[in-house]
Amino acid sequence: MEIPYTTELRPDTGVYNAKLGIWLFLASEVMLFGALFSAYILLRVGAPEGMWPHGWLDVRFGALNTIILALSAITTLLAWAACKVREFGKFKFFHGCTILLALTFLCIKSYEYHDKWIHYEIQMKDGTFADGHLVEQNDKEVLIHGRIVTDEKDLYDLRAQKNIQLQEIRIDRSTIKKMENYAPRHNTFTAIYFTLTGLHALHILGGTCVIFYLWAFGGNMWRKDPERFTNRVEVSGLFWHFVDLVWIFLFPVLYLT
Amino acid sequence: MNDSVEQFPPYRGELDDHHGHADHGHEHHEPGFWSKYIFSTDHKVIGIQYGFTALCFLLFGFFLMLLMRWQIAHPGMPVPAIGPLLEKILGAPAAGGAISPDLYNSFGAMHGTIMVFLGVVPLAFAAFGNYVVPLMIGAPDMAFPRVNMASYHAFFLGGVVMLVSFFIPGGAAQAGWTSYSPLATSIPTNGQAFWLVGMVLLITSSLLGAVNFIATIIQLRAPGMTWMRMPFFVWAQFVTAFILLLAFPPLEAAGVLQLMDNVAHTSFFLPTGLAVGGQLADRSGGGSPLLWQHLFWFLGHPEVYVLILPAMGIVGEVIANNTRKPLWGYKSLVYSVLIVGFLSFIVWAHHMYLTGMGQHIAIFFQTTTMIISVPSVIILTCMFLSLWGGSIRINTPMLFALGFLPMFGIGGLTGLPLGLAAADLYLHDTYYVIAHFHYVVAPGTIFGLFAGVYFWFPKITGRKMNEFWGRVHFWCSFVFMNLVFMPMFAQGIKGMLRRMSDGAVNYSAARVPNAIDTLPGNIMELNTWILWAAIALGIAQIPFIVNLFYSISHGEKVGDNPWSATTLDWQTPTPPPHGNFAHEPHVYHGPYEYSAPGHPTDFTPQDEPLELPAPAARPQPAH
Predict the structure, then answer these.
(1) What phi, psi does B45 have (nearest 5°)?
(2) Distance from CA of B44 to the nearest CA of A (A)
(3) Which residues contact A7 (CB under 8 A, 6 or more apart)?
(4) pLDDT by residue (tens digit) across B51-70?
(5) How far is CA A150 from CA A127, A165, B396, in A?
């Protein structure tokens, strides 16, 4: 039994099955991320005055990751083009670059996550707030590299605050009312930040796995049925472009506003 | 008993000369048990897997309902017969064999979840869709057979997660099948986390299925199977697949967010200053409980059409076949089903009139809700009109299809007051709502599904189910379904609220004699009547279960096309082999060419030309 139109195009629709399939899947992905972005908008609009964080994320890392994904989109396209002109060596090279770029993206993202994870906001019993990266802690005291503010709102809008002076601060545990890192539970912003970028990172990871599979184990199919292999590269490439596109929305929404 | 033994199709040509094995080198290897039944990529096997699993879940969900009805009629009394067993399995929540309020809540939540996501959707969409759609459009299989297998496995895993959640400490999810936050996050059990993980798996399964169905219907239609020649059932499945594809992801997003609320202690759906059990919750707050409701009902309402459209498709097929004439208004049916599919995305907030959404928004959703009833009524009207002037054959599938029409009518019409904000403010969350949507789904959709089971059983097994017991099953189900759900309208109109574990005893005139608007004794008494009707309804399913299994091996043997049907699913060998069709079928005309004038038979299969031979060659009448 042979399923028709796995490789060749169906004349009246002009596509092969998998290409239609991936577009349908991407439609559902649009609805998934659409719902999450809607949730972001609703939560942000509903946030109390002055309590939505600005400038918490490092734009330099975000911009770097944007460039990396843009480059990976180009290499993905070139890898497909290489398949189209039947040059497997070039395919190997370009998708090798794609995989390396994707891994670099994930490394940078992990570093950003780690940076938030060791970042603590400490409510003091005297009503002030200590905020900064944890250097070390023991049963008696906590050492952070950060600053102390009297109004919590100062911690929320960092855009206007130039040249924040950071220093090592040693805090006695008995003076601490509540200590919490910038994990998802910290506030609505960190929650949606981790969820959106985490889900996106999972997509990156999934896409990388598929591309790696084609890159490492595709030789057999390439020799037997290069057209079908090219189609697989195209379909996985479409997914990859979608994942890039999501980041193009995530970057301004989370980093720049 | 029919003794036409040689009905087996030529694809088993090997059987004809099974003495000579030597020259069968080309015969492909018979797959083993695992690859044949568990890891099969054949759409028919997957359809049967879905169907069997879904029927089991339907039975289980029904059983949960029986326990709840006992608790409602006899609050706090030990469940007879199986009470001790319940206590043994579930422990403290069923102490003394009685159902505690917590257990009642989790039964309620799981009854809804199981019936909708593990019972009706898999049966209506996945099982019938998988088995029938590729056959109807003349395809050898689904477009992505391995994705299809993955879809079933994700579904099965989701079902297992749901079932396992009954046995964790604290029990299964208790926040209703709608899982409203903050309640869903505040209940101190992990049941909700299991529910969410299970839902994510079920949603994944549905998405894989939906992509597969749409791609199959667009890409794998046989030559000549143009859009307007597709059977109505295929159209219904096509629209259903689009609804699943586009409405489910927002619930998946909501599920991920609520899972974060439950596991990572975020506050997506938790407002600032939330207090649980008199204590300020240790949460950052800032979330929005309404956000959950929007995301949930953005799926939740289209889901209603996911439940009903495949059943309408089945009923359409059965009616056309048994009236022996074309379905009335085929084009109106197709356009209506497309419009229903589209409109189902913009009516969701009529579930939320009580959230204080503001009049302008309420008016918008009231209007769309009233508009969506128009195409639904067109569909129902077309089916009624199809009966007009037909020479109706009465058999079990037809009985169920005929039963569907008024039952769905009652369900649909009683929905109108709920779609109007003013009436809904009073009726919201009462038994009226329960009665309304159960009329749509239970005697509506499930009757449609029963019709489908009786109708396609001969294609799957080569044997018919027993007609007498089929009719017993229908008439008993019909009577008891109505006895179960009709009284709930009265209870709801009198103000009895749903989701109360004591059957509203605390609001009865007997308990609080001097209060106004209490529930009178006759309304409370209905609880007992409903319990007995529900038990009788359960007993009425026994003939079906026995009939189903007995007929697999002992039913009356029939040929490839026992109902003399026109659609392609009946033009295959029985059961259809791997790859379905011996030769790729060519479609010459629309799906319902019954009683074509001047044609020798009263049905013309789609792969047989309508044009008659030249007049001279036409067989003349016998004298």
Answers:
(1) -65, -45
(2) 14
(3) A16, A225, A227, A228, A231
(4) 999 999 999 999 999 999 99
(5) 7, 15, 78
Three-class SS state of A55? coil
For A184, the closest of B144, B254, B264 (CB atoms) is: B264
Neighbours of B565 (CB within 10 A): 24
Q: For helices B359-387 and B289-323, give the axis angle rounded to 10 degrees.
A: 10
Q: Are residues A99 and A207 in the same domain?
A: yes
Are B447 and B400 spatial neighbours (Cβ–Cβ below 8 Å)?
Answer: yes
Q: Does residue B27 surpass a pLDDT of 60?
A: no
Which strands, in side-by-side order, build the sheet including A129-137?
A167-172, A141-149, A129-137, A119-124, A176-181
In chain A, the residue whose alpha carbon lies closest to the alpha carbon of B227 is: A12
What ipTM was reported for this prediction? 0.96
- For residues B2-8, average pLDDT: 37
* The predicted structure's pLDDT at residue B613: 55
Domains of chain B and any CATH numbers: 39-271+286-570 (1.20.210.10)
Residue span of the structural domain in which A59 resides: 32-44+54-116+186-256
Mean pLDDT over A56-71 rounds to 97
Distance from A253 to chain B by nearest Cα, in Å?
A: 18
Mean pLDDT along residues B575-598:
91
CATH number at residue A165: 2.30.30
Using the 8-state DSSP alphabet, how is residue B127 labeled? I
pLDDT digits (tens, 9 = 90+) for B462-508: 999 999 999 999 999 999 999 999 999 999 999 999 999 999 998 99
- Indicate whether B620 pLDDT > 60: no
Q: Does B247 touch chain A (CB under 8 A)?
A: yes
Q: Using the Cα atoms of residue B188, residue B192, residue B193 and residue B194 in order, give the sign of their dihedral.
A: positive
Q: Please check whether residue B116 touches A, CB under 8 A.
A: no
Mean pLDDT (chain B, rounded): 91
pTM, 2 dp: 0.93
